[in-house]
Amino acid sequence: MTAQIDYVRLAQTLPPRLLRFFARYPPTVRSTTSQQGAPAAIETSSTTPSDSPDANQVESTMKVLLAPSESPNPFKPHKHPETGRWHDPVYSLRRQADLVKMAKANGVEELLPYTIKGSDEARKRREDHGLRIKGTGVGQRVKGKAWERTMKSRLAQRKQAMLGMPAMVQQWKQLGHGRGWKKFPR
């Protein structure tokens, strides 16, 4: 009974958009034993009859919150059973993301149907693909600007020139300060 009251209190604290979503698409709990990953609904039964109006409200709220979903996932496109034509998702990706953010902020994200905007899916995508920024993978390099790409070779060339500078200065002095000098440094 206390769990039911907790659900009612939780429902009273949710934003109106989430309440409307859960009223239209009642949540189901994903079964860990099903192999297809299909959600399984939770069934509640009351063993003691209650006469108080609060208890009736709690029971009706529980039925709404935990009723099995008869409609397809509103976050995915689905095929019409009679015509065979595909229907777009009821909620766009932007609206899905908004609902997921609201549900996450209120601690009820696991009650939402499967969506690619969910935290679990984002975490899985990050593990599978990484950051997906060019140059951050193994053996990859960021393209960069032309001066950035040639900087190492220019610095190496400059270092070699500096190491050879004392010999060049000596040769300059022997030839008479530029007379007969053929190889000016570039």
Key descriptive features of the protein:
186 residues; 4 strands; 47% helix; 8 helices; single chain; mainly alpha; two-stranded antiparallel ribbon
Tally of helical runs: 8
Strand content: under 5%
Helix-strand category: mainly alpha
* Percent helix: 40-55%
Q: Could you tell me the mean pLDDT?
A: 79
Instruction: List SSEs in N-to-C order.
Output: HHEEHEEHHHHH
The largest sheet, given as strand count, sense and whether it forms a barrel, is: 2 strands, antiparallel
Shape: rod-shaped
Q: List low-pLDDT spans.
A: 31-50, 61-69
Distance from first to last alpha carbon: 88 Å
- Estimated radius of gyration: 34 Å
Q: Can you put this structure into words, describing what you see?
A:
With 186 residues, this protein is mostly helical. Helix content is 47%, strand content 4%. The chain is built from eight helices and four strands; from the N terminus they run ααββαββααααα. A hairpin with an 8-residue loop joins strand 1 and strand 2. The N and C termini lie far apart (88 Å).
Put the structure in a nutshell.
This protein is mainly α.
What's the structural blueprint in terms of helices and strands?
Blueprint: H1 2-13, H2 16-24, E1 29-30, E2 39-40, H3 53-66, E3 78-79, E4 86-87, H4 93-106, H5 119-129, H6 146-149, H7 151-163, H8 165-175
Antiparallel strand pairs: 1-2, 3-4
